[in-house]
Amino acid sequence: MRCLERIYDRYPPTRSERRDIRLISSWLLTEGKFSNTVECQDLHFTHEGLRLHAYLYCSGGPADKPSALLLHGYTPDSLELSALAKKLAEFGWAAVVLEARGRGLSEGNPEDVNGYVRDSVITLKYMRILGVDRTKMFVVGQSLGSAVAILCAAIDQEIAGVAALHPFDEISPDALGAGVENPDVRRPVDVVNKVSPRPLLIIAGDKDNILPCEGAVRLYEAAKDPKRLLIVRDGTHAIEDSEVYVLGWLLSRA
Q: Is the pLDDT assigned to residue 226 strictly greater than 80?
C-alpha cells in the first residue's frame, strides 16, 4: 500500500478525519494484523438465471461482524480488491468481493453493467442471510464499481455508507454496450444525492488518465452531506493509490 503522506485533502480535514488518520497511521506502524487466521471462501448463488461467484474474507465466520461489499471495475477481475478485503478481515470485518457478470467465475455478459447493480443488491441480501451486522454494511467500489456502489445505496437504504474510488460522474449512454435503464449505472451523478444521510467518501487521483479527477469533483458537488472528497497527489487509476485511506475510513465507522 502507498504511504499515507501521498494523500492530501482538497478541503480541510475535520476532527473525526484527523482521528481516522491517526488510526491508519497506527495501523501502518503495527501492520494491523489483529488476526492471522483469515480465510477466503467461495460463495456461489444464482440470480436472473446466472450462476454468480464471490469471495468471502473473514476470520471465524461473518456473524455479527461489520462488513463491506467490494466491487471491482469494468475490465479487471476481483483480484484488484483482494488485498483490501484481506486487510479488513484481519481487523475483524467480513469482506465480500463480488465478481461481475462475465468476470472470473461469474456467468453472464460483462457488458450488462446494469445487471452488475442488480447482482450487487442481491449480494447484500445474501450477506444479511449470512448474519453480518445489518447496521454496519458498507459498499466500496473501484472505477465502474464505484458507480455500482452509488446505485446500490440509492436502492438499498440499509447500506451504512459508500466509498467511491476513482469514479466518474457520467459517461456516454453508448459506452460499455449495455441497454439504458433508469437509473443507469453510466450516470451515477443522477442518484448520488440519495446516498445522504449516509456518509460518502470519494477518492480520485490527480494523474488518472482513465477517469480524470474532474469527474469525481462533479460527482462530489452533486452529492449531499455528509460527504468527503480526497485527491491523491500523483495518483493514478490504481486502487493501491487509495486503499490506505479507505481502510482507515471504514475502520473508524465500525
A: yes
Distance, in Å, from the CA atom of 18 to the CA atom of 59, rounded to the nearest integer, reads: 29
Cα–Cα dist 229/219, whole Å: 9
First-last CA distance in the chain = 21
Domains of the chain: 34-170+183-251 (3.40.50.1820)
Helices 243-251 and 15-30 cross at an angle (nearest 10°) of 110
CA separation for the pair 77, 11 (Å, rounded): 33
Residue 6's pLDDT band, with cuts at 50, 70 and 90, is very low
Q: What SS3 class is residue 234? A: coil
Q: How does pLDDT run across 146-173, given as a tens digit for each residue? A: 999 999 999 999 999 999 999 999 987 7
Tell me the whole-structure pTM to 2 decimals. 0.88
Q: Are 253 and 226 in contact (CB under 8 A)?
A: no
Nearest Cα to Cα of residue 55 among 38, 45, 37, 42: 42
CA angle in degrees (0–180, nearest 5) for 139-229-118: 25
* H or E, element range at 140: strand 137-142
Query: Residues near 82 by Cβ (< 8 Å), separated by ≥ 6?
Result: 55, 57, 97
Q: What kind and span of H or E run contains 162?
A: strand 161-165
